[in-house]
Amino acid sequence: MAWDPNQGQPNDPNSAYGTPSNPYGAPPPQNPYGAPQNPYTPPTENPYAAPPYPYYQGGPGYGPPQSAPLPLGEAIKGLPRQYIKVTTKPGVMTFAEEMGKASWDIVWVQLIALAIISAILSYLYTLISPTFTMTSSSTIDTATLRSLLAGFSLVSIILVPVFFFIGQGILYGLAKAFGGQGKFVTQCYSNLLFSVPIGIVSGIVNLIPIAGAFVAFALSIYSIVLNIFSLMAVHRLSGGKATAVVLIPVGVVLLLACALVILFVTFIIAALQHH
Description:
Layout lengths: L71 H17 L3 H7 L5 H25 L1 H7 L5 H36 L6 H22 L5 H25 L3 H36 L1
Helix pairs in contact: 1-6, 2-7, 3-5, 3-6, 5-8, 6-7, 7-8
């Protein structure tokens, strides 16, 4: 068959310059060695970072306790156990387990009981103190003196709650300034859990001459430690902040006491120089 030059090139499937068909079906991937996905994705948080302190950052199991006040009779019966637990097992967790029972009725019951017992112990202390013995041997009538002491003891029943709420109000304001989250009634309740037993024991040992004063001083130091723990639990503060809340008023009182002593000594020296 003759080739017609007007028909173009013949369509030869076996042409050596044609594109061969793929004998394996689907075309091969363009880059069989592409970068695979990283199976070791970096963690979202640093696994070696120090975990947040669970009690103050709302960690699991350490959130603010649910308020579950007990009936007054049941709450009074449970006070001895709570006193022993708080004073013999000091710590933030101890107060955290007890402070959910806070209510105003049990706060007032403890406060009134502490005021009455403190007044009785104070009256007994004045009766056996050397000052009373020397005064009773002077011209002052003993019956009159005892009446005055009894009157002062009755006044202390009123002063104990007054000074308690003033002190707690100062601590509450400082705790709020440091970011505290607790309630005032909870703070008062937690404080009384150690203030009542330690206050009663201090009043009893004060009846012992000389040695009682040292024991009472040691108990007051222990009360400061327990107060720090209670504020940490109630207001969810760090140890440093709770310590500052407790020690700032103590430092202010000491400075005022030193200023009064210096003023008194200066007044005495000036009076002696005039004579």
